[in-house]
Amino acid sequence: MTELLEVSGLCTEFQTAAGTIRAVDGISLSVRKGETLGIVGESGCGKSITSLSIMQLLPKRISRIASGHIRFEGKDMLEMSMNEVRNIRGNRIAMIFQEPMTSLNPVFKIGRQISESARYHLKLSKKEAAERAVEMLRKVGIPRPEKIAQQYAHQLSGGMRQRVMIAMAMVCNPQLLIADEPTTALDVTIQAQILDLMRDLQKNEGMSILMITHDLGVVAEMCDRVVIMYAGQIVEETDVATLYSNPLHPYTRGLLASLPQLAGDEERLSSIPGQVPNPANLPSGCRFAPRCPVAVDRCREQLPELLEVQPGHTCRCILQQEGVL
Predict the structure, then answer these.
(1) What is the CATH number of domain 1-92+175-260?
(2) pLDDT at 158 > cutoff 80
């Protein structure tokens, strides 16, 4: 398959009261045409910062992309003018944000918000764009789309708002959809409906999806390949089937062990002790070492590289690379 998006060596920095901190540190990943790539990790691992860096939506006053390349269809977006980036953003690359209530404008009707992108990118008339907005609302399974287009965000349920966000993202038929925790605030029934909707749209439109989540159940259902992030770095990457059958990094193993199991008689769920380190105060050596159950002294002294340990399976763990684990 052909790479649609290639991110290589991406480093994103923020200026804070404590000085310059690196929230994303040397990320390299690719999304192929027609596939779904998942990015998984706890809150604070750098998943959303990675997606906002790709879209170039981070506040320029306090942040910058220090190094790296973001190539979309072979062209480096970091070398483009802002006009060129705007022509891609919302058109060929679209994004669904984590919380639709804070992403939708409370003072504009739903139909206007969806049609705005169609008017800008597709050069449609006001009437054509309004009809396109209603068509997209119908396509994402919203009943009475003509009526919903005339309503405001606060008049809709959480599931309906998320469908509206998907309609906004899909109005220009993007090649790549970035979905940042698209089902986090939804109950499990609505979550299943939203995932089914995204899968159907992907199948019908032939687009690629970059799915950002902390839910490994969503990854199993939606993704072809998966990237595990920890403290601003990728610690493991492989296809989804291999990740579940043969996880290599201790962090990945900890995440999988924390999933509830239908079989077995455990009374308590497994958990990973501690928390993700503050990027302003990272530990020396492996960033997961302070929480790792199998860490040895050299793990705390030496920062491991991300290397291919098995065919198509990379891992950032000294013990795995030495064949000890």
Answers:
(1) 3.40.50.300
(2) yes
